[in-house]
């Protein structure tokens, strides 16, 4: 076989380049501390590394979800714990209000404290997290859960709850909404709920409704229209002398209950145990509805208790003992209502505790999986320094030998003997 000088040179150069490339690869491994730096270093190992790294990324995401849910549940549990403490105090106050020898002044002081505790509860139901989101508002977490409108607390959120994935095959409820926790309680008395719209001046109307005589309002609802009443403001010339006036209709059948009654903006409407004050003077054609409800949220239940205790006066004679018996019944029913609220809060705290235990178990599991994954990565990717240093020495020797061989081969030419 005949070899040209060009082939000899090319083969020698290829050998030198190959040896240099191997040395550079080994030096790169020593500098990074990793055996596999690019896919061509070890294709099979690279595929395994990518699979393990993907799993570790997922585990890291699950751990972040666990931390976020744990923070939210701890904040929720803290708020519920404070609410339960206040409810315990309210139970004591309601029992005291029905105690023997309790004076009207003392009972009024109890009602005042209940009202103050109510404000604390309202603040707790509107607890915010570190991002400023209201934790009991469901998915509408940019708004407070409960707001006071027209003398009644109403829920502004929705019934949404967050489901967070904390493991490959495990999700957990990461939030609780205010409707599930604090709404839907049966109450002893009817509570009026006002509904108003846009008046004839194109302005959204607002008003307040206050119960001045609960028994009278309860009787009005039971003996009248359980669906409530609609108040319509008539033309000014409907009465003499001309002026603002209104008529009242039953909602269920439209029957006229009271016609063409003069309206005074200073005093509002006082009928059936209610006092209705409209912010802007109504115009002819304006309407509003008053609907009774027997199911409401925790805040309205407690507000109703405070109002009844504040307005009750000890009978001055044996003839009026029926009022005292009615108040005793009201206190018993109020204690039942508070007990129902407490039971729901306790049940929710139990659920949150169970979920926090699940989070702890999931966190421990993910941490274990992280350790295993990192160990697998180390076994596949990390460099054996002793082996690499020995390999580098051998590769350096090969390069030097190749270079020396090239020098000697390059001198094997006939021209050297013709000189």
Which helices and strands, and how do they pair?
Layout: H1 5-32, H2 43-97, H3 104-125, E1 146-149, E2 152-155, E3 163-167, E4 170-173, H4 178-182, E5 185-196, E6 207-211, H5 214-223, E7 229-233, E8 245-250, E9 256-262, E10 269-271, E11 274-278, E12 287-296, H6 298-311, H7 321-381, H8 385-410
Antiparallel strand pairs: 1-2, 3-4, 5-12, 6-11, 7-8, 7-12, 8-9, 10-11
Helix pairs in contact: 1-8, 2-3, 2-7, 3-6, 6-7
Characterization of the model:
- The protein has 419 residues and is of the alpha+beta class.
- Helices cover 53% and strands 17% of the residues.
- The chain has helices at residues 5-32, 43-97, 104-125, 178-182, 214-223, 298-311, 321-381, 385-410; strands at 146-149, 152-155, 163-167, 170-173, 185-196, 207-211, 229-233, 245-250, 256-262, 269-271, 274-278, 287-296.
- The chain has a 5-stranded antiparallel β-sheet. The protein has a 3-stranded antiparallel β-sheet with strand order 6-11-10, with no helix packed on it. A two-stranded antiparallel sheet has the order 1-2.
- A hairpin with a 2-residue loop joins strand 3 and strand 4 (170-173).
- Helix 1 runs antiparallel to helix 8 (385-410).
- The two termini are 27 Å apart.
- 25% of the residues are buried.
């Amino acid at each position: 076989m005949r070899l040209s000088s060009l082939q000899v040179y090319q083969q020698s150069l290829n050998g030198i380049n190959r040896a240099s490339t191997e040395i550079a690869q080994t030096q790169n491994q020593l500098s990074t501390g990793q055996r596999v730096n690019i896919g061509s270093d070890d294709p099979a190992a690279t595929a395994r590394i990518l699979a393990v790294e993907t799993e570790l990324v997922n585990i890291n995401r699950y751990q972040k979800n666990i931390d976020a849910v744990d923070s939210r549940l701890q904040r929720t549990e803290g708020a519920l714990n404070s609410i339960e403490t206040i409810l315990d105090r309210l139970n004591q106050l309601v029992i005291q209000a029905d105690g023997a020898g309790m004076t009207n002044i003392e009972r009024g002081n109890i009602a005042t404290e209940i009202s103050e505790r109510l404000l604390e509860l309202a603040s707790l139901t509107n607890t915010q997290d570190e991002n400023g989101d209201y934790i009991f508002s469901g998915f509408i977490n940019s708004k407070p859960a409960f707001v006071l409108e027209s003398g009644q607390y109403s829920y502004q959120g929705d019934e949404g709850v967050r489901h967070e994935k904390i493991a490959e095959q495990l999700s957990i409820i990461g939030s609780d909404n205010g409707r599930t926790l604090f709404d839907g309680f049966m109450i002893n008395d009817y509570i009026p709920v006002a509904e108003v719209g846009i008046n004839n001046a194109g302005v959204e109307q607002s008003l307040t409704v206050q119960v001045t005589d609960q028994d009278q309002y309860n009787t009005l609802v039971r003996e009248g229209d359980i669906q409530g009443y609609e108040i319509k403001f008539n033309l000014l010339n409907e009465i003499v002398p001309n002026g603002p006036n209104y008529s009242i209709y039953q909602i269920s059948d439209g029957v006229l209950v009271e016609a063409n009654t003069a309206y005074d903006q200073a005093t509002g409407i006082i009928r059936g145990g209610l006092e209705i004050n409209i912010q802007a003077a109504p115009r002819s054609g304006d309407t509003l509805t008053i609907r009774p409800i027997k199911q409401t949220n925790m805040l309205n239940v407690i507000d109703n208790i405070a109002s009844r205790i504040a307005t009750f006066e000890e009978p001055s004679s044996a003839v009026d003992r029926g009022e005292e018996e009615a108040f005793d019944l009201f206190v018993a029913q109020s204690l039942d209502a508070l007990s129902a609220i407490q039971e729901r809060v306790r049940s929710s705290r139990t659920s949150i505790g169970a979920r926090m235990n699940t989070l702890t178990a999931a966190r421990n599991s993910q941490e274990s999986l992280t350790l295993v994954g990192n160990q697998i990565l180390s076994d596949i990717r990390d460099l054996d320094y002793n082996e690499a240093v020995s390999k580098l020495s051998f590769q350096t020797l090969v390069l030097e030998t190749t270079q020396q061989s090239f020098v000697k081969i390059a001198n094997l030419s006939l021209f050297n003997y013709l000189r």
